[in-house]
Every structure is written in structure tokens, then in C-alpha cells.
Amino acid sequence: MKNILIILITLFFTTQSNAQIVKAEIIATGLTCSMCSNAINKQLKSLPEVASVETDLNTNTFTVTMRPNTNISPKVFKDNVEKAGFFVGSLVLYVDLDALENYINIEKKELTAINKLQIQILDKGFVTDKEFKKLTKKYKNSETYLSNNEEDFHFKVIN
To answer: If residue 9 lies in a helix (H) or strand (E), which one and from where to where?
Structure first.
């Protein structure tokens, strides 16, 4: 009986380690034509974790659907948009609740028991410069936000 309990506990923690970003919505800035969006589209599709990319040219939004059971950092999205020569103006992620290991809930809003969350990353490089200045003032008492550590991701819950 004790062995079964140990196996169940191990399986529980193993499944949690497979937590992932399910989908990402990236609004890019600096685009002037369809060739610009094509460059970002190519960069995002080149990632092995990406299943598909849909582009809305009217809003410069790239909806990235991830392959199952893959882990990826928000920094990878930012780096690939910048590789294409542009910037991230907004990054909204659809994540598993247990995927928030290196994420900091900056607004301290209580997370509900919903398995999937829609969150917006608020760090420098994931919002426009103008928005980041506003957020720096708003979160001036948060040491982690002001430290700008690239391994931590500050977020607010959208849904």
C-alpha cells in the first residue's frame, strides 16, 4: 500500500512538470507591410515547439499554438520577434495553472482553481516602452519588477 502511495505521488509531480504554454498572442510593433509580418511568421514557425501561427494583419497579432507536452519560455517569443527585426508590444499567454514556476503574479490577484489561465507578461521587452514606464511607476515598490531579471516573468491575470 505504501509503494502505491509513493508511485501516485511521483506521478502527480511528474505530470505537473509537463506544464506548458498552450497558446500565445503576440502583438508586434514596428511593422509597416505584409513582408514584415511574414518575417515574424517565419521566425515563429521555425520553433520546434510551435504547431501553428495565425496572423491578423489589421492588429499585427500573431496567435501561436504550441505542440502538446512542450515547454518554452516567453523569452523565446521575444527573441524570435526581435530576430525578425521587430518588437513585442504585448504578450498574452494561455498557460496551465501549474506552469507558473518562474512567474510572479505582480497584482497579487488570487488565482482560481481554473486549470488554464490567460495572463499578460508585463516585463520590459514584453510591453511597449511607454507602457513599461507606466508599469515601473505603478510597481515601484516591487523589488523583483525593478530588478528586471530575465528569468522571472511578471504577469497579470486577464481572465
So the answer is: helix 2-17
User: Could you report the average pLDDT of every consecutive run of 10 residues in the chain (159 residues)?
Assistant: 36 38 94 89 95 93 92 93 95 83 80 75 94 93 84 87
DSSP state, 110? Answer: P
CATH numbers and ranges of domains, the chain: 27-89 (3.30.70.100), 104-159 (no CATH)
Say if residues 69 and 144 touch (Cβ distance below 8 Å): no
Cα-based distances in Å from 55 to 31, 59, 77, 110: 12, 9, 15, 32
Nearest to 123 by CA among 158, 154, 81, 94: 154
Strand-pair category, 21-29 with 87-96: antiparallel
What does pTM read for this prediction?
A: 0.82
